[in-house]
Amino acid sequence: MTPTTDKGPASSPSPQPSPSPSRGTLDLAWKIFLPVAIGLGVVAWLFHREFNIEVWRSIDFTPRVIACIALAWLFMIGRDFGLSWRFRTITDRDLSWAQAIKVNMLCEFTSCVTPSAVGGSALGMVYMNREGIELGRATTLMLTTLFLDELFFVLSVPVVIMLIPYRELFGFDHSAFTTGLQTVFWIVYCGIALWTLLLFLGILVRPRAIHRGLLRLFSLGFLKRWRDQVDTLGANMEAAGASLRRRPLKWWLETFSGTALSWCSRYLVVNALFLAFVPSAPQLVVFGRQFVVWVVLMVSPTPGSAGISEWLFTTYYGDLIGSAAMALVIALFWRIISYYIYLIIGACIVPGWIKNSFRKK
Known about the structure:
By secondary structure, the protein is mainly alpha-helical. The protein is built from 15 helices and no strands.
């Protein structure tokens, strides 16, 4: 009913019009595809500067090359299987396989259209909520996936450093690029390690004490502006900890296995492409360098690391390939399999998801 006052209906506030699904779709499309267009423009400029058509013509697509490219696609499917498996496990199978795959694809699409520092998990709790998971629970579950991802990086990098000689991992030269790469990598890695330690203490060891400590810290000076967000983070860590501390070892092994499978499969995409185009390259070094690439790309400011990914790949792997043009060919296949395909899938899924969201609203 329309609210009334003592002065009659004439003075009643007008009802606010609800946003239509079509307008919501257009607004979201504008916010999504504008940064994507900027990122693709950087990619086009890079290819215009470096690409040599003669290198492409010299590639012989033999059965072995085609099989290796197919293997790269298979590894990417393995990555999606690992993440969907993890969504199924952390929700105690409340998400069906179809729902888990849908949530995973939506998260990956979000990663493609936002800066890497934001990531696809920023809206993961919303996607799970639309699939029937209570919002508060979905928030704690996404905090759990964040902790698992960071834990995998923190534990894996020392193993990679032990298995691969340091100079082979970062490159043999002493150029400004190599020096800068090492600096950025270790700064970001230390940040990830500290963040993982905070999550570990805040979720599994002393959630209430960490929550209070953060509130005290963010009550000082200019930090006050983030106090509300930190309070929310602390409350989410307490809620997540209350759930995770009751989990059996089997649950932890399954969720971490899904995490490890997804990341290793993502890295092995590059190994398969090197087997196709540069079979003489040392596969362990190719695999280990992916850890460096993804750690550095965590601070990329462009949507889905567009432009920066291609430049970093061609420069970093250049000493293993020997040709800048061939490096761009491999980078192109890599980005098609690990990035552009998710833009296409997301473009197909997101409009229907928006319509369903408005309908439920």
